[in-house]
Amino acid sequence: MRRLALTILGIVIFLLGVLWTLQGLGFVGWPADSFMIGKRQWAYIGVLAMAAGLILVWIVRRRRSGR
Asked: For the whole model, what pTM was predicted?
């Protein structure tokens, strides 16, 4: 159960990173009053979040189920 929860958490972090990256680059203008739109800093933060999410999923998936 813990493994599933961590996998879902990693996927959510990755998807948030995608949203933040696209908002930071100005490709996504939703929500319209977001302070993140067009701010390159959020694109960088988004890329880091995507990497963290993928790493979390990778670590959880490669662990043996017996641990």
From this structure: 0.85
